[in-house]
């Protein structure tokens, strides 16, 4: 149980690190994000290799996400295609707010993460007008529950290691398993044990009839980017460092041909 709590805290710590790194990219002009600064309390300047790595991460997911969202109906007689996005371990990601600005937001966007994370995000959405204005006026926001409910955006707490909780979210969020769904697991599964990772992928394949599972994970910690990333984590989150590094090692041992 103690190891589980330690790993949970480690995962939550990396959320802050990712947000700070994304802000560093934005400030250097690698990408545009008008909202990430709202989630960063302590801005930092990352090295060029980290900035380039985070830009590659942003560009990869954005390219595939646009391809999914830009798929049109087959004929003029067909109704518009409703699409969903489910973000697992969303953290302080701002993609929904950016898609709103770009006029590309899907019919339903659902974010899931630990309650400790969703509670903080719900509070920021409630108190920061640039974020609050992107969810409709009738949105129900609960900091205590870590939830945001609006017509087209949902933020919900769950432990991804519990597949039953994920199944409950389908109903709670109003997700339709028959609709085209883009599932995002961006630097998330690496922090879970191999059995939980397999269970999540299996759950997704069994639940959604038409889905894309976008997986982006850290691998090869011995290359230049990996070494710099580990140094950043070690310097900023020393109390959780060994738990984070252990996750990398478990991934490589469990999936050596990744």
TrEMBL record:
GO terms of biological process kind: methylation
Function of the protein: Involved in brassinosteroid (BR) signaling.
Database matches in InterPro entries: LCMT1 (IPR016651), Ppm1/Ppm2/Tcmp (IPR007213), SAM-dependent_MTases_sf (IPR029063)
Family, as annotated: Belongs to the methyltransferase superfamily. LCMT family.
Annotated GO CC locations: cytoplasm; membrane
Reactions accelerated catalytically: [phosphatase 2A protein]-C-terminal L-leucine + S-adenosyl-L-methionine = [phosphatase 2A protein]-C-terminal L-leucine methyl ester + S-adenosyl-L-homocysteine
Keyword Nucleotide-binding: no
EC code(s) of this entry: 2.1.1.233
Any Pfam family: LCM
Key words, A-Z: Cytoplasm, Membrane, Methyltransferase, S-adenosyl-L-methionine, Transferase
Name of the top EC class for this enzyme: transferase
Gene Ontology molecular functions: protein C-terminal leucine carboxyl O-methyltransferase activity
Residues that bind S-adenosyl-L-methionine: 57, 89, 159-160, 186
Organism: Glycine max (Soybean)
Coiled coil spans: none
Protein name: Leucine carboxyl methyltransferase 1 homolog
SUPFAM superfamilies according to UniProt: S-adenosyl-L-methionine-dependent methyltransferases
UniProt membrane topology term: Peripheral membrane protein
Location relative to the cell: Cytoplasm; Membrane
């Amino acid at each position: 149980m103690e190891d589980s709590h330690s790993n949970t805290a480690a995962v939550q710590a990396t959320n802050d690190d990712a947000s700070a790194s994304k802000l560093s990219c934005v400030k250097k002009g690698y990408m545009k994000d008008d909202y990430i600064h709202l989630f960063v309390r302590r801005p930092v300047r990352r090295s060029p290799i980290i900035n380039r790595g985070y830009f590659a991460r942003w560009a990869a997911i954005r390219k595939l996400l646009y391809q999914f969202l830009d798929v049109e109906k087959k004929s003029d007689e067909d109704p518009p295609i409703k699409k969903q996005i489910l973000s697992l371990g969303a953290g302080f990601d701002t993609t929904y707010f950016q898609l709103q600005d770009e006029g590309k937001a899907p019919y339903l966007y659902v974010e899931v993460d630990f309650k400790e994370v969703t509670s903080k995000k719900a509070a920021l959405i409630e108190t920061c007008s640039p974020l609050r204005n992107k969810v409709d006026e009738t949105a129900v926001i609960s900091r205590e529950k870590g939830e945001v409910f609006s017509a087209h955006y949902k933020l919900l707490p769950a432990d991804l290691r519990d597949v039953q909780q994920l199944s409950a979210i389908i109903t709670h969020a109003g997700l339709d398993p028959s609709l085209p769904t883009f599932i995002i697991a961006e630097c998330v599964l690496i922090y879970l044990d191999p059995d939980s990772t397999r269970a999540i992928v299996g759950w997704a394949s069994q639940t959604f009839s038409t889905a894309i599972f976008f997986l982006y994970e850290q691998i090869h910690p011995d290359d230049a980017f990996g070494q710099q990333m580990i140094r950043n984590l070690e310097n900023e989150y020393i109390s959780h460092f060994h738990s984070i590094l252990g996750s990398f090692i478990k991934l490589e041992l469990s999936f050596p041909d990744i």
